[in-house]
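Session log. Operator J.P. requested a structure for one protein chain; no other inputs attached. Running the standard single-chain path with token output.
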Amino acid sequence: MQTNLSEDAKKLPRAKEAEEILRSCVHCGFCTATCPTYQILGDELDGPRGRIYLMKSFFEGGEVTRETQAHLDRCLTCRNCETTCPSGVEYHTLLDIGRAAIEEKVGRPMGEKMMRSALRTVLTRPQIFDPLLKTGQLFRPLLPKSLKQKVPANSVKAKARPTETHTRKMLILEGCVQPTLSPNTNAATARVLNKLGIQVISAAEAGCCGAVDYHLNAHEAGLQRARRNIDAWWPMIESGTEAIIQTASGCGAFVIEYGHLLKDDPTYAKKAQKISSLSKDLVEILKQEDLSSLAVNADKKLAFHCPCTLQHALKLNGAVESILKKIGFSLTTVPDSHLCCGSAGTYSVTQPELSTQLRDNKLDALESGQPDVIATANIGCQTHLNGAGRTPVRHWIEILEDAITS
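Structure written below.
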């Protein structure tokens, strides 16, 4: 579409990138049909096309208000629209640029600022998150329902990781909340890959991927986390590590963008590009390996919840299901599997009503085939869906590891 940036907009750090994305949109409206928030709210401004109009108006010098910001905040960044778009509009990039610029323009009430700051402080630091979660579990019976759903009833103790060494080595991102909420996810990954002759290693200095900060409009803080992770991983990359495994697709979707986000950083640009090329979701590793050596007793009927980051960002829709079927699991059919569960990083906290409605809709779809357990590939989705207290939800690698008989 024709776009004429205002003089003020031209001064923004990523103005040219935003302009190119805006011009790639032809306003066909295909994205609206698959947008979860538009389906619930029925407002054009709560769909991708409407939000693009709002951002275009801002970049061209139009007035923006708190209402403009609210429509952008209600976007899940599920990227379903990108899968649907015939023009290849990089909507999520435009949204990141637009949200940050508009927040700079209109600000936020103190309550929202404090909540967002708390999320960035707590979720990204295991040394804070872990004791707070344990405190929440202690007082869980006294918590209001909305908060109780976010606090698992019991802590999970991690199983031991293998100690064998192998010639083939792969790094793994431990993450920020996953070590506390689901410590066996990476442990199960290490044990399964050990059976395939792959040694899983981690860098203690690496931490949160940066997505929490970045998607709450603290872009530089998110990029600083990316730089720290690059520094932590680089010695192992130079020594020949094959890949950087992501067991949370939300993290993987951000790490593969390190190269793009740091392309103008003279110190980190080349390293970031290398990191992005080595970042692989766990399913990408396993689908390249011979799994016939794994003796699997696949006696459970599964419903697989494919996270938005796995199917729309990483473009791996159907990959996990293919592996699970290949090794003998029975998978149910899941209606509307392309739709978001409502977790979307911190969305379940910042937009609780919409998030809960999307979660319940997703669970109805997942449970329609009466599975024994729901499998997923992202800690945020896993925790969010489990919060309803319905069919148990686990990471698919844990289910696979439990089924291995030798």
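Operator note: The longest strand covers residues 168-172.
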